[in-house]
Structure formats: C-alpha cells, structure tokens
C-alpha cells in the first residue's frame, strides 16, 4: 500500500503525528536546523534517550542513511525517528543514501506501528542538497517503500521547498 502524501508549509515541531522525523547528525546529540528545533521543543527527554543510544548500540554514532527512534518528549507525537542524511557532493552520487533515510525511517515507523509520519526535507539545509533533487528522491523513495504508514506528511519550511515537493507529489 502506498501512503497518502501530504504537503504542509511550516514548522515540523508543531505537527501532530505518530512520528516526526528528525534530520539528525550522526552524534544524535542535537545540532542546528531541524535537529536543534526538535531537541529544543521536544525537551530533555529526547536528548536523554539519544545519549542512552550512544552509550549502547551507537557508540560511534548513527550511520548516514540509517534511522532510530526515541520518545518525542513534549512534541505532539509518540516518537521521533532520527535519520542522518548525506552531505551533498557534486563529485559523488549519494542519492541512494538520501533515499535510504526515507526508507529506513518508514521501516522504523512500521516497527513502531506508526500510521502518520511527518518528514522534513532531509539534507537540504546545511548539508547542501539541491531542493528539487531532494524532493524527487524523497517522493520516489516513499512511494516505493512498501510501508503500512497511512500518511506521509512532508513539512516544508518555506515557499521554495513547498513548490519543489509539489512538483513531484502531483
């Protein structure tokens, strides 16, 4: 079954969903952009679980393209699914790693029983992925994922991101 794809312009930390995806860095310990916003609004519970993950299974951090879940803390969600997107490279095709972020996040969502998942535009901030290409990869990966998730909501921060995703969701 293919989930319903919805586009929303706004702040992902204000979304109500079973799971909110965090464009995390490999340390899982917070950062800038979406990652920092989720940690700030979600509260210390998220960071505490991320520290526990680092102390156990992810001592060297979460690998690019992988995903892992924690509590959502004070967010209006049950879980935060952290995924590490690739840094864009003009000289190396890393699109499979970006697609993996979406597939792996949906795999984790399925394991949790999540029915609604809110995604940011992974890797399009400081990691420099061109928005149109990132939108194409995200939409193709979600459509091909074979997930039980009923709704995937792409939460886009600005007009440019919304327009890029709208081109591919049609």
From TrEMBL:
Database matches in SMART domains: A1pp
Keyword Methyltransferase annotated: no
Protein name, per record: O-acetyl-ADP-ribose deacetylase
Keyword Hydrolase: yes
Protein source organism: Streptomyces edwardsiae
Pfam families membership: Macro (PF01661)
GO molecular function (one): O-acetyl-ADP-ribose deacetylase activity
PROSITE patterns registered for this protein in UniProt: MACRO
UniProt-listed InterPro entries: Macro_dom, Macro_dom-like
EC number of this enzyme: 3.1.1.106
Keywords linked to the UniProt accession: Hydrolase
Domain spans labelled Macro: 1-170
UniProt xrefs under SUPFAM superfamilies: Macro domain-like
Classification via PANTHER family: GANGLIOSIDE INDUCED DIFFERENTIATION ASSOCIATED PROTEIN 2-RELATED, MACRO DOMAIN-CONTAINING PROTEIN
Domain of life: Bacteria
């Amino acid at each position: 079954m293919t989930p319903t794809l919805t586009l929303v312009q706004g702040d992902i930390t204000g979304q109500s969903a079973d799971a909110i995806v965090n464009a995390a860095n490999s340390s899982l310990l917070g950062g800038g952009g979406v990652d920092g916003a989720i940690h700030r609004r979600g509260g210390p519970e998220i960071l505490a679980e991320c520290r526990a993950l680092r102390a156990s299974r992810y001592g060297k951090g979460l690998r690019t393209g992988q995903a892992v879940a924690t509590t959502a803390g004070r967010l209006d969600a049950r879980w935060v699914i952290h995924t590490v997107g690739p840094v864009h490279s003009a000289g190396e095709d890393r699109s499979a790693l970006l697609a993996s972020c979406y597939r792996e996040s949906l795999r984790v969502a399925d394991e949790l029983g999540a029915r609604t998942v809110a995604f940011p535009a992974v890797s399009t901030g400081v990691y420099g992925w061109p928005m149109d290409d990132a939108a194409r990869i995200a939409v193709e990966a979600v459509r091909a994922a074979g997930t039980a998730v009923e709704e995937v909501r792409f939460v886009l921060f600005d007009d440019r991101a919304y327009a890029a995703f709208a081109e591919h969701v049609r």
